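User: Is it possible to get a 3D structure for a protein together with its bound compound? The compound here is zinc ion. I've pasted both below.
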Amino acid sequence: MEEIIGNRETLALLYGAAKSEKPAGCYIIAGAEGSGKRSIARLAAAAFCCVSRHPDGSPCLTCRNCRNILSGTHVDVRELNPEKDKKWIPVEDVRQFLKVTYLAPVEGDWRAYLIDASALNTQGQNALLKSIEEVRPRSVFFLMATDLSALLPTVRSRSVILKTEALSSDIICGALQKEAGNRAKYAERIPVAAALSRGSLGMARKLLHSDRFFSTRATVLSYFDTILSGGGFIKLCAVAPPGAMNRQEYIDFLTMARTCLRDLLRRKNDPGAAPLIFPDEELFSDLATVIHLRRGVELFDLTEELLANADNANVFTGLSRYHRGMQGLTKNE
Ligand SMILES: [Zn+2]
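Assistant: Yes, that's possible. Here is the predicted structure of the complex:
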């Protein structure tokens, strides 16, 4: 079980519920991917089932109930998640899962149900309604959701909604540095991963360890560097060859280029804007100076268009169009 960073208020509220006479029957824990929703839900379930809870309602983390819940193996705490590599949980699985919610607790006083609600389609959510409306005694549901608006109003209105907290870049950097120790490979990567994580430690961790993310970043940086040194279409093709990129690489490339461009356009409007992607101020400010604002906006729109159609597009044609758009970036009217 990883250490929980931030989210103290949410946890305090859930711990308070665990020791109260009448907790709610269903809690929604909402927040970005990797923001600690599952860890929070497990800690809350542990608080309900712990045999030696602290006075503030928090779990002891050492009794058998706590240990089994935190490792996801407690008989009274069931978790419903999509199968590996699947986005959705079939409604049949939801119905099957809900059958166990009629059982009494086996090992303690409470039963808790942790459901990845982001993987429930409308049918799945509807199947859940009755169970969360009339929650059985000594039972509690925790629904984890990345996007609250994807939940039916009827599900939301039956639940207490709690949001995970977006962590500051500094907190994320600190946590990653602690984990990575002083391995040199990560020193340059950590601030980039933290800046692009949208406040989610899990996301930052994923980026930090993604060699693919950092190699795409290197490609895109040298692509923009080429523009700075006056390189035209042929040189751009040499950095990002249209004939040698597969669809996923194409999508990764455009996504990264979009973030770079966003950095540059922000700097055009606000001289104090700090970059998310660029490693050094010199390259960043030189580029921001030479690019033409209106053409930058046009290229941004082109990036959005190509990304929106990337699933069916011809990669060669798309990338060639992008190089031509990029080539115009520094031209004056
Ligand atoms: Zn305990």
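Residues 50-52, 59-60, 63, 65-66 surround zinc ion (CB under 6 Å). The longest strand covers residues 139-145.
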